[in-house]
Amino acid sequence: MGAIRDRMVAELELRGMSAATKKSYLTCCRVFVAHFMKSPEQLAAADIKEFLLYLMRQRNVGPSCVRVYVSALAFLYRAVLRRPDVVDDLPRPRVPKKLPDVPSREEVEAMLRAVRSLKYRTMLIAAYGAGLRISEARCLRVEDVDGKRMLLHIRGAKRGKDRFVLLS
After folding, report:
1. Strand order in the sheet with 151-154
2. Closest alpha carbon to 35 in 55, 62, 15
3. Chain center to CA of 141
4. Which residues pair with 165 in a beta bridge?
5. Which of 61-89 are b and which e, b meaning 16 or more Cβ less than 10 Å from the residue's Cβ?
6. 140 has which bridge partners?
7. Pairing of strands 145-146, 151-154
């Protein structure tokens, strides 16, 4: 899959996909090709569906992971191989929506007290209070804190966008 892989990397870069998406899509396609030991150009829609069933039945892969495989294979066949007809009717398993476990006030306080480093405790308090992603909290700088307006400037958040969040 060397030449196809190179074309896929180029298409991913041209579309501005994140590094995590590139890695995920390439891994999914590598697993797909390794499963059949054939070039994806030789495989049809029935083979893709058979592979998805294999993932669900034998490897016990969850619906959200199967959706990533579907997206990766759809990208491969549409953007790289220029065979959109192969993936037009691929099913996307439903992912059950679950509410997150919300820790109690005492649990949050205990967790924060357990962190000895003032630097990391401050980072955790800011992340928890503003609802930041780990990557956003990790990239915070002193100049991102606007104490007058009580805002945090989050740079390069998801999809590379900047945003402001309220400072609690």
Report:
1. 145-146, 151-154, 163-166
2. 55
3. 25
4. 152
5. beeebbeebbbbbbbbbbbbbebeebbee
6. none
7. antiparallel
Residue 118 is predicted with a pLDDT of 92
Separation between Cα atoms, residue 38 and residue 57, nearest integer Å: 22
How sure is the predictor about 1, in pLDDT bands with cuts at 50, 70 and 90? low
Amino acid type, 7: R
Distance, CA of 12 to CA of 96 (rounded, Å): 29
Other beta carbons less than 10 A from residue 44's beta carbon: 11
Question: What are the residues facing 154 on neighbouring strands?
Answer: 163
- 103's CB contacts (< 8 A; 6+ apart) are 111
Q: Per-residue pLDDT for 63 more than 70?
A: yes
Q: Tokens representing 44?
A: 């049809």
Q: Rounded CA gap, 64 and 70, in Å?
A: 10
CA gap 110, 56 in Å, rounded: 39
> Residue with structure tokens 């298409």?
11
The backbone region for 30, taken as left when phi is positive above 0, alpha when psi lies in -120 to 50, beta otherwise, is alpha
Q: Which pair of structure tokens corresponds to residue 140? A: 């915070």
